[in-house]
Amino acid sequence: MKKILVPIDGSAASQKAAEKGVELAKLFNSELTFIHVIYIPDTVGHTKYGIYMEYDFKEMKEKMIATGTKFVDSFLEGLDLNGVAVEKLIVTGQPYEEILAAAEDGKFDLIVMGRRGFSKVKRFFVGSVTQRVISDSPCPVFIVLE
């Protein structure tokens, strides 16, 4: 197992997954990549009157990526990463899509993630992002329970 991907969102579940990811990376001498996905709404919408409006989220996107980068740096400070090769990915889009794309593009051997994160609607056993990643992942997914 050479490459491990760990999605993080700041939730307790992702904290536990990050800790397990570090543990596995040390055990197998693996590279560890943390991915943080920032959801930004579509650029085209409509009003209740049916009028279409285009929104420019470029400036907001830049600020959110800067904030996301600070978040990831802060998050990683709390982990014992000594002896582990670490990379960070901060991307925008639908979380499950971006996690799956990163896993495939990066040819990861394993995804380590919490069973649910900060979603508005929490499922009883598994969060919706986690479920979609499990369903469509190009590699094994290790789910860390809280």
From TrEMBL:
<dbReference type="GO" id="GO:0005737">
    <property type="term" value="C:cytoplasm"/>
</dbReference>
<dbReference type="Pfam" id="PF00582">
    <property type="entry name" value="Usp"/>
</dbReference>
<keyword id="KW-0963">Cytoplasm</keyword>
<dbReference type="InterPro" id="IPR006015">
    <property type="entry name" value="Universal_stress_UspA"/>
</dbReference>
<protein>
    <recommendedName>
        <fullName>Universal stress protein</fullName>
    </recommendedName>
</protein>
<comment type="similarity">
    <text>Belongs to the universal stress protein A family.</text>
</comment>
<feature type="domain" description="UspA">
    <location>
        <begin position="1"/>
        <end position="144"/>
    </location>
</feature>
<dbReference type="InterPro" id="IPR014729">
    <property type="entry name" value="Rossmann-like_a/b/a_fold"/>
</dbReference>
<dbReference type="InterPro" id="IPR006016">
    <property type="entry name" value="UspA"/>
</dbReference>
